[in-house]
């Protein structure tokens, strides 16, 4: 099934479908997992349907650990529907009379408990299978809908952090010319004070090298590129969790480089704020399909 929405991997679904002799009750729980890992708990009557159920699941979900439980509840309380095996009852009575005196008659309720005395209503297996599959699809649809609702919330959370990262990048970029100039003047003054006898051209070369090391323009460009890519991935939707996880690693790499190159308090503070925002996003990304 085509999917262009961001989805969480956490959800719950429940469905009940009635058929002539009972009710099929499905419960589904989905949590985070690296791959799609289904776990079915099925009664014997539904074992033959498991391959089809797995196929339906794969068409609707891409990742997550999914636990699915089916209970088949037989209809009860319909006295008019009871069918007594009269021949078996008579056999039981004759056998009992051989081992117990007539003064101790059989308890009718005990006779009814004997296996086979009350005939179970026959189940239309085709009807039951349709009810099982219908209930499975209903519960699965609930799970998908819940995943998409939570996924939309996660996408909004990430977009807010992306906006914060963009603001920090813009802040450092605006300060960068002044940061580099201040660093250059600071280094030049210190070198001139300490090493008046050294060739001024050599001093300029050293200053240029140090300034180059302090230049974070390339890191800022890459952060901008990651922001653009993250927004593109969120917009396209689908199973994007792994792609976002990779982008979080790239964000973190640039933030660490920015921190290592920081030469003024403003840059250091921006790098710290970036790391906080990236970590908040990374935690939420773990829950995206």
TrEMBL record:
Domain Endoribonuclease YicC-like N-terminal: 6-155
Endoribonuclease YicC-like C-terminal domain boundaries: 173-289
Parts of the chain that traverse the membrane: none
InterPro entries in the cross-refs: YicC-like_C (IPR013551), YicC-like_N (IPR013527), YicC/YloC-like (IPR005229)
Coiled-coil parts of chain: 177-204
Cross-referenced Pfam families: YicC-like_C, YicC-like_N
Cofactor(s) this protein cannot do without: a divalent metal cation
UniProt KW Coiled coil keyword: yes
Keywords on record: Coiled coil, Endonuclease, Hydrolase, Nuclease
Keyword Coiled coil: yes
NCBIfam families assigned to the protein according to its UniProt record, in alphabetical order: YicC/YloC family endoribonuclease
Similarity-based family: Belongs to the YicC/YloC family.
Protein name (Swiss-Prot/TrEMBL): YicC family protein
């Amino acid at each position: 099934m085509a999917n262009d929405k961001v989805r969480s991997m956490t959800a719950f679904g429940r469905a009940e479908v009635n058929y002539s002799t009972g009710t099929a009750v499905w419960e589904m729980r989905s949590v985070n997992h690296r791959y799609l890992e289904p776990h079915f708990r099925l009664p014997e009557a539904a074992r033959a349907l498991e391959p089809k159920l797995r196929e339906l699941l794969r068409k609707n979900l891409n990742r997550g650990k999914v636990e699915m439980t089916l209970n088949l509840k037989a209809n009860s309380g319909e006295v008019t529907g009871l069918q007594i095996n009269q021949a078996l009852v008579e056999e039981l009575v004759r056998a009992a009379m051989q081992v117990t005196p007539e003064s101790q008659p059989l308890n009718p309720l005990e006779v009814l408990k004997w296996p086979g005395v009350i005939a179970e209503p026959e189940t239309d297996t085709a009807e039951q299978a349709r009810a099982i599959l219908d209930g499975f699809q209903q519960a699965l649809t609930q799970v998908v809908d819940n995943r998409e609702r939570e996924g939309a919330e996660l996408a909004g959370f990430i977009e807010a952090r992306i906006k914060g990262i963009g603001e920090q990048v813009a802040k450092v970029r605006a300060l960068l010319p002044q940061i580099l100039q201040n660093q250059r003047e600071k280094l030049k003054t210190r070198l001139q004070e300490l090493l008046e006898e050294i060739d001024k051209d050599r001093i300029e070369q050293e200053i240029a090298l140090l300034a180059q090391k302090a230049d974070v323009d390339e890191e800022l460009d890459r952060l901008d590129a990651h922001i653009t890519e993250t927004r593109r991935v969120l917009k396209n939707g689908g199973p994007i969790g792994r792609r976002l996880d990779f982008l979080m690693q790239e964000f973190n790499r640039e933030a660490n480089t920015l921190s290592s190159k920081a030469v003024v308090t403003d840059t250091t503070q921006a790098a710290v704020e970036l790391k906080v925002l990236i970590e908040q996003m990374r935690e939420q990304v773990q829950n995206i399909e």
